[in-house]
Task: structure prediction
Amino acid sequence: MTSFLSRRTISAACIAGAAALVALLAPRLETRVLHAQSGLPNLIVRQDILAHHWIVRVENLPATFCSVQEGEVTPGEHTLLRFSVSTPNIGDADLALGDPNAHVAANDGLYEFATCHHHYHFRHYALYQLIDPNSGFVWRAAKRGFCMIDVEPAPAYFGIPPGPAQFKACGQIGIPGNQGISSGHADEYVWKLGGQYFVLDGGDGQPVIPPGQYILRITVNPGFVPQAGENVKFASIDPATGLYHMLPESNYADNVAEVLVTIPDHPGKQAVGPLAGTPEANDPTFDDDEHDPPVK
Result:
């Protein structure tokens, strides 16, 4: 993994350069001033879920799927790497966003309307990357938008006793939603949902992903450098890196999980990976292209 470590060193230099750019732009960008509160949320990515909930299989993706449209995937049969992502809030405060309609009315840059899904999606919630450890090349996943709600309690070993789930509705135009993640709870996108995949055969316009070992990296609430004219009113700046984050947290340093995945040579119709032996592994009929339950 020497080349991977070299790539990480290069990435650190890139981050430093990005932080310097942000420092130059900061006087011209309006950012949110956080209200005083007794605690802060802290989002993480569960590495155990990522390591044990992935699968490679062949699927037929119809043109009607939002992930096909948003991910610019050519409709038809493709070989996919699917995976699950769980993002618990282990902080001592709820991450309470409320109704997306209110944020859109305030023009604070937190949400954008997803025309295919017909509801609002959170901006900069998670970054899905598949990385070649030898070259450092990065592929993007088909997932483009996120709706953040309480899906399940976080495991007890995190030491955050969960209270009642508070956030359960994405909301639509004119229909109030209530988005967020309660302290001690987790949002989760299971592997069978729309967009929870990388296209391995080049069917999304990216290079073909050859057989071999790759790094699956998930970042929740990723740091970013705003594009020219980007609305970052709701965002906060991490003083350690100078990068912007859409959500306030007590710790931005624990937002990444990485696992090694093996892409097989010609998997065929039979699924391959840790989930290959599950009843749904070879059932191609259930991609509902959204969260489950339907309010997601």
